[in-house]
Automatic annotation (TrEMBL):
One of its GO terms (cellular component) is cytoplasm. GO terms for biological process: amino acid activation for nonribosomal peptide biosynthetic process; lipid biosynthetic process; secondary metabolite biosynthetic process. The lineage of its organism: Bacteria, Bacillati, Actinomycetota, Actinomycetes, Mycobacteriales. This is Peptide synthetase. Residues 50-447 form the Condensation domain. It holds the Pfam family Condensation. It comes from Gordonia alkanivorans CGMCC 6845. One of its GO terms (molecular function) is catalytic activity.
């Protein structure tokens, strides 16, 4: 966790005061309850949305939760057909055409508003949800803008804050010519999570309302008694593992130095970040899938285990906490009614360098599955319980995730292919974030880091260490972790 300097403490105290909270006392991150019920009417926030909203209220100028994508529509798609799909999307996807109001009791809710798309004077660029933030002094024909210039516009749109009180949480910009249509899409995380893409992007790709096809595969909402019991169990698990007093910062190896009260402010500051990516070899992943069967874990769980080994290899911290995002959308919480439903699952790993690689991966899988038993309880109420008991904010320096690419699993017609690339918002939400992302054809690893917080030698080696571990582990199961890391050191020198 970044050092809580006096300047940062002053800034964060001001933010807390402006939001009506205080440095000490009851938690402000979320309301201290364990309600997970589905809002009865459109407009009421779900529990994860309330947590995200509190983060937004603390710093509405932040762009840390802006998600930017560039979609390229080829083949038979015309500019008009892409615009028509966009208009259908915003007509049906109620969350995306709403603003937020806060009542006298400080309870936020959504209100639907009417927004109309606008063509420029040349009828070559269509935009929706914002006043075009592109450089109006540019004299390039928008229909002929090259990819580098598109990325410049997309970056500008992504790095412009949302005023969610007056602005809808979606910006769309469509340009190009028939058969080569580009859409820039920027959305605030309050309105979406990874489970939103099949409906949102599926509608844009197909040109038809995709519908909530995944509803039946999601879990039902537990009753109040079950939710309370689950929350109490989650807190007990936290206190015995990732929220215990002896947890150290993995980057420095030190115990927390701030007071418990100050620790609750420390995570609330954005920092500029850098992102790097590297492909993962297909043949390595094929062999890795066989390893997953050997150790009795899913491939995704095993990749989180790789992240734990990477954290040990990069930092030397054999005992560390990784923060893992998880889906917590319920059956009745359709993405077009309820936006962000994500959860945060901290996991504490202990790596024994003398253990075999196979046993280490089995142990890691057990940690993952034990932690995921509590994924149905939102992170916010757990934090509230920890704070009310006088505990400190947990160690959250490294995030690890395995996620699908936005277009993964979305059917595409052969005559109208669509590609998608992400736009970096310039912010690293954690000192170090590791993500394995897979589309329908390949997998790559992405690493974000905060310069000045993460040592340069760790940042430089990160992608190499992760991809090398995927390469090396299938043939190293019978050897020790120490031997694996020695081989890794030869492959990716410090």
């Amino acid at each position: 966790m970044p050092t809580l300097t006096e300047a940062r403490l002053t800034l964060l105290r001001r933010r807390i005061a402006e939001s009506g909270g205080a440095l000490s006392g009851p938690a402000d991150e979320t309301r201290p309850d364990t309600r997970t019920e589905t809002p009865a009417l459109f407009g009421q926030f779900g529990i994860a949305e309330r947590r995200m909203w509190k983060i937004y209220e603390l710093d509405p100028e932040s762009v840390s939760h802006n998600i930017g994508l560039v979609l390229e529509f080829g083949g038979s798609r015309t500019v008009e057909s892409v615009v028509a799909a966009a208009e259908l999307l915003v007509e049906r996807f109620e969350v995306l055409r709403s603003v937020v109001e806060v009542d006298d009791a400080d309870v936020p809710h959504r209100v639907q508003v009417q927004r109309e798309g606008q063509w420029d004077t040349e009828h070559s660029v269509w935009s929706w949800g914002f006043e075009d933030v592109a450089d109006e002094s540019a004299d390039t024909d928008p229909a002929e803008i090259d990819p580098a210039e598109i990325d410049t516009v997309a970056t500008r749109m992504t790095r412009t804050p949302f005023d969610l009180f007056s602005e809808v949480p979606l910006r769309l910009r469509v340009s190009g010519r028939d058969g080569e249509v580009t859409m820039i899409l920027v959305v605030h995380h309050l309105a979406v999570d990874d489970t939103s893409w099949p409906l949102l992007l599926g509608t844009l790709v197909s040109g038809e309302w995709a519908g909530d096809a995944d509803a039946d595969s999601r879990p039902a909402t537990p009753d109040a008694a079950a939710a309370t019991e689950a929350a109490e169990s989650a807190v007990r698990h936290a206190l015995s593992t990732w929220a215990a007093e002896d947890v150290r910062h993995p980057l420095s190896g030190e115990l927390p130095a701030e007071s418990a009260a100050e620790s609750w402010l420390s995570p609330m500051d954005d920092r500029a970040g850098l992102k790097v990516a590297a492909p993962v070899a297909d043949e390595s992943l094929t062999a890795f899938d066989r390893v997953a069967q050997t150790v009795g874990a899913t491939p995704n769980a095993l990749l989180i285990g790789v992240c734990s080994l990477a954290a040990y290899a990069l930092t030397g911290a054999s005992d560390h906490v990784l923060v893992v995002p998880a889906d917590n959308r319920r059956r009745s919480q359709s993405p077009h009614h309820i936006g962000y439903c994500g959860n945060i699952i901290p996991m504490r790993f202990r790596v024994d360098p003398t253990a075999t690689v196979e046993q280490t991966l089995r142990t890691a899988a057990a940690v993952i599955y034990r932690a995921m038993e509590h994924s149905g309880t939102d992170f916010g109420p757990i934090l509230t319980a920890l704070r009310q008991q006088g505990g400190r904010f947990p160690i959250m320096e490294i995030m690890a995730s395995v996620r699908p690419a936005p277009l993964r699993g979305i059917p595409q017609p052969d005559h109208a292919p669509v590609t998608c690339r992400s736009v970096f918002n310039g912010i690293a939400n954690y000192p170090l974030s590791i993500a394995f992302e897979a589309d329908d054809h390949s997998t790559h690893v992405e690493v974000d880091h905060q310069p000045g917080i993460v040592p340069d030698h760790i940042a430089v080696r990160s992608t190499g260490v992760l991809t090398a571990l995927v390469d090396l582990i299938p043939a190293a199961l019978d050897g020790t972790v120490a031997e694996l890391l020695a081989n890794l050191e030869r492959r990716v020198p410090a």
